[in-house]
Amino acid sequence: MRIVICGAGQVGYGIAERLAAEQNDVSVVDAQARLVNLVRDSLDVRGVVGHGSHPDVLAEAGIDQADMLIAVTLSDEVNMVACQVAHSLFNVPTKIARIRAQSYLAPHWQDLFRRDNMPIDVIISPEIEVGETVLRRLALPGAVETVTFADDEVVVLGIDCTADCPIVDTPLRQLTELFPDLGAVVVGILRRARLFVPRSEDAILVGDLAYVVAKRDQVKRTLAIFGHEEPEATRIVIAGGGNIGFFVAQSLEARFPNARVKLIEENRDRAVAVSEALHRTVILNGSALDQVMLREADVQDADSLVALTNDDETNILSAVMAKNLGCKRNLCLINSTSYPAFTHALGIDAYVNPRAVTVSRILRHVRRGRIRSVQSLQNGAAELIEAEALQTSPLVGRPLRDLDLPDGVRIGAIYRKRAVIVPSGETQILAGDRVVIFAVAERVRLVEQMFRVSLEFF
Question: HSE of 220 in the Cβ direction (CA atoms, 13 Å)?
Fold first, then answer.
């Protein structure tokens, strides 16, 4: 696939890195020569210095032969114009744009992005994507990662396995015997920085991060079996009143009527603007790094502190301070790819990486075959994929035990006629089923082939 990416920042670089590694023909455009040179030196991609919405720059990047344009510059307007130019002058089939300003996304302006107006096929709002991820974590505090598939009927949980986990050192095959009616499957384990698909004789060890696919109505029971019965957060302190912090506070007011929310915002003008737009949230003007301010927000009695400022260091330090003051749990926004490895050691319970969230959202539109949704895990070490099985798929019509799936691939759930099926050896996939699959990075291309029309996989 030939892809032009406008923007060589964190998101653009992350997308280029993933797509180039999968042997796509990628060109990256950015106005900053430093960023373009970094991409050229680090990745097997073409780099072009210039304005991402200028026709001559896009032409130099090969837009006339491109299958897709991905516009993720820091400017919404550049992203939108780049899509318009790609459509009007070069007839690019698929155009994806990152749009951050919520004014463009208001429901009453939804006709703006129709094909005969501003022809953008996929709009990605990082603030909304990240905000929804935060809300899912708050709803299930026992999980450090939460992703939903199949009309939200299938939930994938990332669960920390501590010394208190009742099923530590138990072979996975025994879990089926101990909990025969549990609608959950362990599909992946992160152990000492290695992410792999476990075999039935493998056991979960202390310190593992287990990825478990579960039916929605079995989520709380699954967490309890792993030793996590933390109640849903109702007393929440948010650090940062920017777009993401505001979205989370607004959503908490709308969806969780019993939640008591306090928001700390350092900029006075922004604090006033947020206070006028929210109704039940208490707004405090000050720094989340000030212990006096944290105490004034009653962080010592809070169920969770959510640090959502634009500064990684502020988020990490405020989360650590809150935990030391008595806050039960913390969750913070981390943009850097360097910090996540130290989060556990620092006392961070969970974190959200905006780049990973945005890249995952884009990948579902890049993947070949009938791919409906994608979630990247552990900086691209593996992916969770929801795909629709076609009649010609090699997976259809045979018991799973006879499929001989490659190492590094595990089927976690099958969604058929609005019902979730937990797979067993006898289960057969039918045409039209939506299948949730865990695949390590080097097996993703094989999964794509399984869900394509042809039988080239075999």
Answer: 6
Token look-up 């008591």 returns: 260
DSSP 328-393: SEEEEE---SSSGGGHHHHT--EEE-HHHHHHHHHHHHHS-SSEEEEEEETTTTEEEEEEEPPTT-
Spatial distance between the Cα atoms of 192 and 194, rounded to a whole number of angstroms: 6
Q: How many CB atoms lie within 10 A of CB 426?
A: 8
Q: What is the DSSP letter of 9?
A: S
| Residue 83 backbone dihedrals phi, psi, to 5 degrees | -65, -40
Exposed/middle/buried for residue 138 (C-beta within 10 Å: 0-12, 13-18, 19+):
buried
Q: Is the pLDDT of residue 110 over 80?
A: no
Nearest residue to 3 (alpha-carbon basis) of 78, 71, 56: 71
pLDDT-derived band at 453 (thresholds 50, 70, 90) equals low
Element housing 39 (H / E): helix 33-42
Burial of 234 (0-12, 13-18, 19+ CB in 10 A): middle
Predicted TM-score (pTM) of the model is 0.81
- In three-state secondary structure terms, 283 is strand
Cβ-contact 69, 86 below 8 angstroms: yes
CA gap 446, 287 in Å, rounded: 49
DSSP 405: P
pLDDT at residue 454 in the model: 47
Find the length of the chain: 458
289: alpha, beta or left, given left = phi > 0 and alpha = psi -120 to 50? alpha
Per-residue pLDDT reduced to its tens digit, 434-452: 999 999 999 988 888 888 7
Neighbours of 286 (CB within 10 A): 16
Q: What is the mean pLDDT of the chain?
A: 91
The residue with tokens 């939804």 is 110
| Paired residues of 238 in beta bridges | 263, 306
Hey, is 399 helix, strand or coil?
strand
Q: Coil, strand, or helix at residue 134?
A: helix
pLDDT digits (tens, 9 = 90+) for 132-157: 999 988 888 889 889 999 999 999 99
The tens digit of pLDDT for each residue in 209-250 reads 999 999 999 999 999 999 998 888 889 999 999 999 999 999
Q: Per the structure block, which two tokens stand in for 323?
A: 């935990």
* H/E segment holding residue 125: none
